[in-house]
What we know:
Helix content is 42%, strand content 21%. The protein is built from 23 helices and 23 strands. Helix 10 (387-404) packs antiparallel against helix 16 (507-522) and helix 10 packs parallel to helix 17 (527-551).
Amino acid sequence: xxxxxxxxxxxxxxxLLLLGVLLPGSVLAQVQAELVAAxxxxxxxxxxxxxxxxxxxxxxxxxxxxxxxxxxxxxMWDLPPxxxxxxxxxxxxxxxxxxxxxxxxxxxxxxxxxxxRLIAPADLxxxxxxxxxxxARWLMCETVCIPxxxxxxxxxxVSSDAPEAxxxxxxxxxxxxxxxxxxxxxxxxxxEKDGLTLRVAAPADMADLHFFPxxxxxxxxxxxxxGNRGARALLKLPLDAAETMPADAMLRGVLAxxxxxxxxxxxxxxxxxxxxxxxxxxxxxxxxxxAPTSADAAGGTQLSFVVLLFAVLGGLILNLMPCVFxxxxxxxxxxxxxxxxxxxxxxxxxxxxTAGVLLSFWxxxxxxxxxxxxxxxxxxxxxxQSAPFVFVLxxxxxxxxxxxSGVFEVGMRATGIGSGLQTRTGVAGSFFSxxxxxxxxxxxxxxxxxxxxxxxxxxxxxxxFVVFTAIALGLALPYLLLSVFPSLVKLLPRPGAWMETxxxxxxxxxxxxxxxxxxxxxxxxxxxxxxxxxxxxxxxGFGLWLYGRATRPGARGARARLSAxxxxxxxxxxxxxxxxxxxxxxQLQWEAWxxxxxxxxxxEGRPIYVDFTARWCATCQVxxxxxxASARVRDYxxxxxxxxxxxxxxxxxxxxxxxxxxxxxxxVPFNLAYPAGGGAPRELPEVLTPEIVLSALDNAxxxxxx
Length: 706
């Protein structure tokens, strides 16, 4: 049934996109566009300031030049002889969000003006009239996205007199982002391994800062960390893991802010990256750090009874957080299984769990202190910023879940997980559970925990350890109570056959935790590395299944040992295969395809390789693995300066659909090889080899279509 629903949904979306392309603009237009002038007449040889006026319906938006998930608005001019048009002058954009509040791009809502300057020829005759025409194209989105277009035109009289101004367009021009130097700003940019930093000293107080990057290597969808006090600010800008930042890159874009009167404005930025010391000397905002903590806002960081109380309460409530509860479910199973045994053992399990939590929190506090002394900007949950750490944690969680599901059983002495919770040596398992609870607790900030964490990260090292100890004791409090009052175990249900069902039930929160970790990993890896990580998890599952079959009761002799060995080898292969790696320096860097980019590269005389692809296209993925695993192909691309463009059709894209139709294609894979020096491209077959690609680039012949 779900398959039919998905098919119908996709069919409806496709039909809507086709209607947006085929029907007149007024039928489905959620954005009304027209051409307006900033002056009532034009003088011979003088510039004429126009603007594309766009009125968006409520909840609809169009996109800025660096759109994010959308496409920027374009103007294709049809001008009289002698006229020239410059590029669009982009107003300060806003953040575009979906209904869940997630950032999806940069764009415009309501009424917006996109100014463009035209230069008139010197031979215009006063008293005449000229007609200026253009084709406007844009993408308009609400919950769905529809391509929009309109033929816009404007008649302007030619006059030798000074022109009369249009107030609305003049106001739009005045609101354009201004150069920082003309506004009296001091700015400096630095680059670190995990992101970029923009230091700001403004001529007056400001609020609501956000940097809109002109380049895609700065992530548009990850929130920026901002610390500011009055006219001084420090912005931490995250990098996009799927994009490569050139070695000679500059920080380009628009810094948006609200001034003292609440007006929304922007400053145009184009900065080289400088060293940390030079940036501090230029702007002097090093003392701001990241966003100010609640302890700073209170007028100084002090270790108080309130901070410790919040730390204990926050740690206690962490037991109920979605990221912690699945792991603690393992401990609940262990306590239930021990309920009918020696009460002293129950106390020992509880104390062992508490020791695991305490030692892990102390190790975390010590690591934070060392890194903080080294100048690192770190916060709660910083280890989940590491893709290898997230990957290993996902593997461990999947192993826990499959063990609870009964796929395999192991002893605690062998690996420290699973059914050892049932054995006499399971105290080590309780200690391990306490450590694991600390690891998965760090993404969560339970109620009362945020102010305590803010204080802990700002306090001196010794006092910070005290706060982290209080958080650990809060997390371990239910189990400490069992160690102090063993009679409380009587409140737990008695062991019985129901326990196996309960144990298997507890596996599903762990599977959900694996899904959450994969969602985190998706934001850290490029698509090929993410696919490897997903396949590694499948390989891990297969290895654990083999191990479980070999070690189940009744398995015999050499056959069981070989199966167990095979399972262990598969487990090792899963880690080696899926371990997140940074792209190698020799790997190709792909650009996003557009017809304009193809024309630009052809004008430069570069050879071009275009890959029309999609993540759901298995043949596409095999082609890339086969072709670009070849060192000969990679060397050829570098030596001949071949531009690699990717037309990603994973989601419906009307521009890619139209280009495929132009080549009489309706599916991917589809690849084109453009020769150096211009000329028509050569079509490649669906299934590729390195020889086919190299031959196509060497021998591209005029087989293209107009």
